[in-house]
Amino acid sequence: MLPRLSAYLSPFGAPGLRPFIGARANTAGARLQGKRPDQRQSGWDADGPGAPKGEGESVTRNFNHVNSDPGALGGASGLKCTENTKNNAKKKRSRIVNKIDGGGEEVILEPANVWALNAWAPPPKGLNDPRNSGENWARVWRTDTLRLVTNAELHDFLWHIGDQVARLINMENFRRRKEFFENKNIDYSWQSAWARRFAEYYSIYKLLGSANFHEACRLVSEEWKSFKELLKASKEGRLPPWMNPRPPGYRKRDGQRTPIVVVRFDNYEVDLKRRVLLLKYWKLEVPFKGKPRWLTRPDAKRGRLIIFYNEAKKRWYARVSAEVLLKRESSGKGFIGIDLGREVIVTAVASDGMALLYKGKVLKSDYYYFEKKIAAIDSALSKLEEVDRNALAEERRRLFEKRRKRRNQIFANIASHLARFAREHSIGAVFIGYPWNISQEKPGKGNINMWAYRRLVLRLATTLENIGIHAFLINEDNTSRKCAYHHIDAVRNPRGLITCPLGHTLHSDVNAALNIMSHGLTVLGIEVKLPKRIKVLSFLATPSKTIPIKP
Question: Which residue has better confidence, 273 or 447?
Answer without folding.
Answer: 273
